[in-house]
Amino acid sequence: MRKRRKSYSVDAVIRFFLQYYNIPTKRDIAKLSMKMERLEEALKASRLGARKAKKTGAVKGRAKKKQARRGRAKMTATEKVLSVIKRSSKGVDIARLKARTGLEDKKIRNIVFRLSKQGTIKRVGRGVYAV
Question: Rounded to whole angstroms, how far apart are CA atoms 5 and 27?
Answer without folding.
Answer: 32
